[in-house]
Amino acid sequence: MRLWLAKPLYEMLPWFYAAAGALLLLAALDSGRGVLPAVLLVLGLALVTAGSFIGWRRRDYRRRH
């Protein structure tokens, strides 16, 4: 089953991923000690990377087609 999103929402997904990742990175800086900062850091980096990668791939595809 495919999930269909409205075009404006679809276009904003990479920005949403990157913004959510940035918020998690900021939360990791403020969360003190223990395992939680490490988890937030890894998730934040993963979301920023995913948002950047998806945006980059979309741009590349649109330039070629």
Describe it for me?
With 65 residues, the protein is mostly helical. It has one domain (8-64). The chain is built from two helices and no strands. The chain has helices spanning 7-30, 36-64. The longest helix is centred in the C-terminal third of the chain and has 29 residues, at 36-64. It is elongated and about 50 Å long. The model has no long low-confidence stretch (mean pLDDT 94).
Question: Any descriptors?
Answer:
single chain, 65 residues, mainly alpha, 2 helices, elongated
Q: Helix and strand layout, with pairings?
A:
Elements: H1 7-30, H2 36-64
Mean pLDDT: 94
Name the structural class: mainly alpha
Low-pLDDT runs of 5+ residues are none
Distance from N terminus to C terminus (CA atoms, Å) equals 26 Å
What's the total helix number? Answer: 2
Strand fraction band? under 5%
Please write the string of helix (H) and strand (E) elements.
Answer: HH
The total beta strand count reads: 0
User: How many structural units, i.e. domains?
Assistant: 1
Query: Quick one: overall form?
Result: elongated
Helix content: over 70%
How can the largest sheet be summarized?
none
